[in-house]
Amino acid sequence: MRIGTKIENVEVTIAMVPGRRLGDEYRSIGDWLERANQIPEALERAMRDKLAKRYGSPMWLVVYLNINEFGIRQAETEATIIAAKQRYSALLGDVYVLWKDKLL
């Protein structure tokens, strides 16, 4: 991505429940607590997979966290996101997580 005269390497990935198809949670009520419980591992897996690719230069990583828990454990999930960003920023470069209506 070019910002002014500077070029930034950007990678984008998605973190979601394994085996889930996009949009499934909007078709049924489901178990929101179980989805909230799956967020930390899904986020970790998405970031770990990008790290395993061993990119040659620092980059911006944008992770679309596509698991909605409808407010269950909101604060805990945001803390999980912040902790993961801190761990992986040291290894990858800038890390951003798009979750619900926020870029964290």
Present the secondary structure layout.
Layout: E1 2-3, E2 6-7, E3 10-15, H1 32-52, E4 60-65, H2 74-92, E5 95-99, E6 102-103
Parallel strand pairs: 3-4, 4-5
Antiparallel strand pairs: 1-2, 5-6
Helix pairs in contact: 1-2
Low-confidence sequence ranges = none
Report helical residue fraction: 25-40%
Q: What's the mean pLDDT score?
A: 87
Report the strand count.
6
Strand content: 15-25%
Instruction: Quickly count the helices.
Output: 2
Biggest sheet descriptor: 4 strands, mixed
- Structural class, from secondary structure content? alpha/beta
Taking the alpha carbons of the first and last residues, their distance comes to 19 Å
Count of individual domains: 1
Radius of gyration: 15 Å
Q: Going across the major beta sheet, what is the strand order?
A: 3-4-5-6
Question: Care to describe what's here?
Answer:
The protein is of the alpha/beta class and 104 residues long. The chain has one domain (2-103). It has helices spanning 32-52, 74-92, and strands spanning 2-3, 6-7, 10-15, 60-65, 95-99, 102-103. A 4-stranded mixed sheet has the order 3-4-5-6, covered by helices on one side. The chain is elongated and about 45 Å long.
Summarize the structure.
The protein is α/β, with parallel strands linked by helices and 104 residues long. It has helices spanning 32-52, 74-92, and strands at 2-3, 6-7, 10-15, 60-65, 95-99, 102-103. It has one domain.
